[in-house]
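Subject: Interface between my chains keeps coming out wrong

I've been trying for a while to get a sensible model of this assembly. When I model each chain on its own everything looks fine, but I need the whole thing in one frame so I can look at the contacts. Pasting all components below, labels as-is. Any help appreciated, I'm running out of ideas.
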Amino acid sequence: MELLDKLTILTDAAKYDAACTSSGARRHHREGMIGSTSSSIAGCCHTFSADGRCVTLLKVLLSNDCCYECKYCVNRRSNDVKRVSFTPRELAELTIGFYRRNYIEGLFLSSAVLGSPDHTTELMIRALSILRNEYRFNGYIHAKTIPGASPELVTQLGLLADRLSVNIELPSEASLKRLAPNKTRGAILAPMRQIRDQAAESKAELVRYRSAPRFAPAGQSTQLIVGATGESDRHILSLTESLYDRYRLKRVFYSAYVPVVENTLLPSLDTKPPLLREHRLYQADWLLRFYGFRAEELLDEAQPDFDPLLDPKCCWALRHPEFFPVEANRSDYESLLRVPGVGVVSARRILVARRAGPLHADDLRKLGVVMKRAQYFLTCGGRLATPLRLSPAGVAANLMAVERAALPPPAFEQLSLFDRAG
Amino acid sequence: MAWREIIYQYDGSFDGLLCCIYESYTQKERPTAILCGGDAEPNLFEIRTVPTVREHAGRVERSLRAVSNEVVPFLRRAFLTDLPDRELAIYRFVVRLYREGAPYLSRLSDDAYQPLLRAVRRLSTEVEHLRGFIRFSVFDGMLGTEIEPKNRVLPLLRAHFCDRCYNETFFIYDRTHREALLYSGGRSRIVPLEDFEMAPPDEEEASYRRLWKRFYDTVAIRERENPRLRMSNMPKRYWRTMTEFQPDAGTQPAALSAATPADGQARGAPDATPAPVKRQEPARSATASGT
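Reply #2:
Try treating it as a single job with all components included. I did that and got this:
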C-alpha cells in the first residue's frame, strides 16, 4: 500500500485524541542530531486544522489493527475498516521529513492494541528507538501507554518519550465496564501511578547526576470523553482535580464525543458533539490550574452542571456577592484573579502598575482587563467602575449578553434543545 | 523650556536612533519627527542628518542601563516593530523615562509607554506564530523559505531556528523588509537582499508536501469544523506561505513568487491531480462504516 494511503488511514484513526501539545520539555540541539524541543514554555503550534485545533505533532497510530471491542471507537475489532500498520522506518522517515520542513514539533504515537498490550508496547518501543537512535531525532515525542502493558515496558517507553499519556476515556468504572469491556480502572491507574513515581525519581536523580536518564521529562496527560455517558460535569471536574492533585498530571484533555459508531449504548449518530460543554470544562480546568479555584467551589450537588449561558467564573462571582467588590488598588493577587474579566496576565500587570500610582477604570482597560465583565466587580479607589447600580439579576443579564456575542451561532440551537430537555 | 523644533534624519540603525536622542539633549532641541535616511520630503521644518557615532550611542545606552537593565532590550524590540513613527514613540518614551526614572517603568498604562508595549506584544505574537508557521523546502539538502511578516522578526527568530536546525544549512527570506537570515555551520548572518526567487520543488520535496497536505486535511474532525476559531488562531495573512493552503500539493508553497517556472507546474500537476480524488475515498468509507 502506498504511504499516502497509510498516512490517511492512520491519521484518521488517531484524530479523536485531543492531546496535541509540545510543552514541558526543554532540550537544546546536540551535535549530530536533528532538532531540539521548543524553546518557549507553551510549546509551539505549527498549524490549526479546519476545526480550529492546534496541530503541533504528527499524530498517528502505529497500527489500527485492534483486538479490543470498545464500543465508541472506530478501530474496534468488529468494525469493518481497512487495517494497516506503519513500519518503524516509514514512521521515522515521515517524522524526520516533516520535522526538518518545520511542519511539526515531533511525533505523537499511539496505537490500537495489536494482539496484546505488551506486544503493542514493544512495537512502539522499537519504532521510537529507531527514530531516536538510528535517525538521531532530538525533537518532541508523545507516546501513549497502552492500558495493561507491563511496568518494565512502560519504563522503556518513558525513557524514549518526552510525555506519556494514559487515556481514561470514560469518567467512571461503570461506564468503562459497559462501553470498554477490555479496559479496567486498575489497568489505567496503575501506569499513571508508575509514571508519576518514576518521573519524580528521575527528577531527583537529575539533581545529583547531570547525565542521569530522563524519564518522561514533560510529565503525563490524559483524556476524558465528554458526552458519551451520563456523568455530570461535577463528576468530571472532581475527577480532574484529583488527577491533578494525586497523579501530578500536566494536563487533562476533554474530548466532546463525536458519534462515529451506531450502538444502543451510545448517543445516536445524529447527536452533535457537545462542544459548548467541552468548552465550559476547559474553562473550569483553567480555573483549577491557574486561578486557585477548587472543584467544589464551582459545582455542587444543587448545581451539578455548568450553565451553558455563562462561564464558570462569572457564575461563581454571581453566587458570591459577599466577596465583591474587589478593590483594584489594594487587593492581593489571589483576590484579583477571582474577578471575572481579570486574567493571570492582567492581574500581574495591575500589581506592577499600581506601584507607580493609583489606578483608574481607564487604566485597567489599558492593562488588558475586560471591563465589560469586570465593571460590576471591581472598584478603583472605592468607586465602582460602572456608574450604574444594578440588581444581581441585572448584572447576570448583562453578563449573559456579553457572553452571547462570544458564542458561535450553532451553539444556540444546541442550547435551546438542551433547555427544553432539562 | 523653549526647545527648538526640528526634524532628524538618521541611518536607520538602532545606534543611529540613540544618536538622535543624544543630539536632542546636547543641542536642546525637540524633534517633531525622526526619519530614516531617504524618507524626508522638504517641508517647513529644518531637517538635520544626525551622524551615527558609536560613542554617543554608547553614552545614551549606558544612561538607559543606569535606569534599568530591561530598558535597552525592550527598546531594541520596539525598534523592530511596525509601529508607525516608532522612532518618535521611542524618543517620547525615553524623554519620560529620563524625567521620572525607574518608577516610570511600572506605569504600564501611560500614553507614552502603552503603545510601545502593545507594539512589542504584537511583535512577540508574530514571532511566536512564525516559529510554527514557517514552512521550509529542502533544496539539495539545504532548507529555505520565504515569509512576509509585518514586523522585522528575523533577529528574534534567529536563536530559535539556529537551535532547532543546528546541524542544517538554512535561509529565511523576509520579503517585506528585504533581508535574509542565513545559517550554515553554526554561524548565522542577517543580510539585506533585494530580490529572491525560490527554486521549484524536486520530486522528494513535492511528495512530502503532498503527504503533509493530506495529513492536514485528514486530522481535522469534520463534525467540529470551526473556521472562525481557525482564523483567530492562525490569521489568514500567514496562509499565503503555508504548504497546506497551496492549491495543489506539487506546486510552489510560497505563493509570493508568482513566477513559478512552467516546468515546475508541469512536474507538479500530473502527480497532484489524482490526489484530491483519492483523498475522498478513505474519508468517506471511514464515516460510512459507522452507519
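Reply #3:
Confirming on my end. Chain B has a mean pLDDT of 84.
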